Model the fold of this input.
Amino acid sequence: MAEVNLRKVVKRYDDVEAVRGIDLDIADHEFIVLVGPSGCGKSTTLRMIAGLEDITDGDIMIGGDVVNDVPPKDRDIAMVFQNYALYPHMTVAENMSFGLRLKHYPKAEIKARVTEAARLLDITDLIDRKPKQLSGGQRQRVAMGRAIVRNPKVFLFDEPLSNLDAKLRVQMRIEIKKVHLKVRTTTVYVTHDQVEAMTLADRVVVMNKGRIEQIGAPNELYHNPATRFVAGFIGSPAMNFLPCRLEEVGGRLHVRLSDRIVFPLPPGRAARYQSVKRDDKLLLGLRPEHITEANSHAEPGVEAFDAVLDVTEPMGMETLIYFTLEGSQVCGRVNPNAGARDGGALRLAVDLNNMHLLNEVTGAVI
Amino acid sequence: MSTLAIDKAGPRRNVKYGSMSRDRIWALRWSYFFLSLFAIIALLPPIYMLITSLKSSAEISAATNPWWVYHPTLSNYIELLTSNQFLRFFWNSAMISVFVVAVTMLISVPAAFALARMKFWGSATLATGVFLTYLIPDSLLFIPLFKMFVMFGDWTGIQLINRWYVLLFIYPTLTVPFCTWIMIGYFASIPKELDEAAIIDGASWFQTLTRIFIPVALPGLIAATIFAFTVSWAQFLYPLVFTTSNDQLVLPVGIITTLIKGDVFNWGQIMTGALLGAAPPLIIYAFLMDYYIAGLTAGATKG
Done:
């Protein structure tokens, strides 16, 4: 168990900078998820922590010690790979105990640790099988077991669920969380799936183009994104962005989407945006759940408007609606009984109490 | 409902079932035709060798049907197997082949591992270079090699020409490049994560090779072993050039030099010797065939 610290870590391949100086402090016992689109440098960062990639510049510390030049085997880490990387010629037990056998642990202790890990992961019956005879989910468990028996300072997961089908992925996600709650080892987990990131992490690190966009607890990222990238990346369906301007009408701050559509801002928001220049190019950020069917009684900050729907997606507990507003496609979530149908008109309401205002040029959330 | 009734009473379409299987039958017939053809071409020489080996010299030179044995005899076999000279050839061949296989594996497996996995400066060029050396034919190499060993003898006083063990230095020039090449391909097909997992588990490069790569690549290793054995067992030109005394000869050269005296060909014993000489590779093939094929087709399909 240990904390992990990254100080201005850079990875450069020839001319390409894959990781551009990131700082990250991971506390003991913490479950950190690095998330971002492919090529954002998240896997490279993980592999640098593992020692599988040299770092070009900066420092990586595990348990307070700089490990820049420490080989992987001496970093006391364990890693779970996307394709499991089980040794095909060894049984489950041999796979799990390989690291311990290399370090010449006493046989009794190896057996005890393997038994304990197998029990924890519910693979006791499979202990004598070869990887070929296991399903994807079982292989993933063995890969985790191999990490657990080592009792390392840090667990590293490199997209461990990407090779599983959707249903199994959800199940294994819960398993991973359960295991972490039991063993409490510091964990760094890489995924491109924002749902995985949200559900597993104590804190999520959103990466983009080799830089950290934002670090925060899942709900913090969801409700208070710092940049347009984070706002658009976290949440599914993604946040809507609508070009807009601020203007003062009758002493009250309004957000104007078009010649026809202008909404007054609720007082709380208006105060926050008072200093924004009136002629800045802005984006109104609205999550789909804040665009719903209009209620009969108006609530403060909720503004109604009419829309003609392009398509609807009934999801059961809700219906996703898509319509075009001033050239941008907008997604909303309405009650399945709201009467939304493909091509039909519907009176909708936007909840401006939960709006975000972004600077279109810098991408920063105001 | 009425439309359904009309559909049911509609004209029946004449469905041709089994057209696929008819194609398949023809494909099979052609396959068997060509397989039989190739089997005949491949098996006729050894069958002829077997027939001839069972004949006496008198019967071989007699003007009878060459494809039939009228007076079968094992005299050729008895003579060869009781001849110390022939057993000496056999022993030389066996020893050289076993040693060459061992030397080849000891060099080419670590070399292939290094070239496939330990990315160092120039490793890709070196890997291609290894294969290119294999493309130089032995008929081009034997004179410079002979010259080299003569000069080595002149300088050091260690005489290697006309000693069977000189072949232990020479055969690997044929076997090592090819076996290294096979093993590079085989090692390269092992997922990168496997050695990364091993490294994180605390294995050194050497342990990764011996405990992960060699067991996982065993079929390829066996294919390379069989290749190295066959090449050394069947090698003719180098032993012909480098060894001359009867007690230093290997089987193929021994048969030719001792059983052909001037223009007298002892056909019965030549055929017997060749058949007996072909036996060890045949036995090895039979036992390791499955592995050999798995090794040759490795990487042809995914998973």
Notes: The first strand of chain B starts at residue 260 and ends at 261. The CA atoms of residues 97 and 232 of chain B lie 5 Å apart. Residues 34-73 of chain B form one domain. Chain B has 15 helices and two strands.
